[in-house]
Amino acid sequence: MLSRFSTAALAATLSLAASAALAGAGDYAFDPVNPQMKKGEDVTLAVRLTNKQTGKPVPDAVVFKTRVDMAPDGMAEMESPVAPLPSKEPGVYAFKTDLPMAGRYQITLSAKVQGEPETVIGKVIVTATK
Q: Which letter, b or e, does each residue of 82-114 get, where b requires 16 or more Cβ atoms within 10 Å of its Cβ?
């Protein structure tokens, strides 16, 4: 027979397991560290990946696909090369790219988060100024 404490512990464990099972790729968000920056070559773009449920940064994700273009301004064909940079803080992912003209740029990212079977996909918009 289970004691009240054991029953409560079992219920808490099942609740945690159920919430973990309900987690999905939609529970994560990419946000710009700096939404505005000067246009130019070799610009550093940094994005923060957070867990929406906890509000905490997500370290050690593997970003395996990135694209930077001017889709928000109707120029998706204006694509810039992207190269990863070392992270300076947990949950922040940085990239080197070119922002050749003033306007809005979209960063599209695909990442794998530890323990998450689905790919996390995010689109972040930043503005390049003169």
A: beeeeeeeebebbbebbbeeebebbbbbebbbe
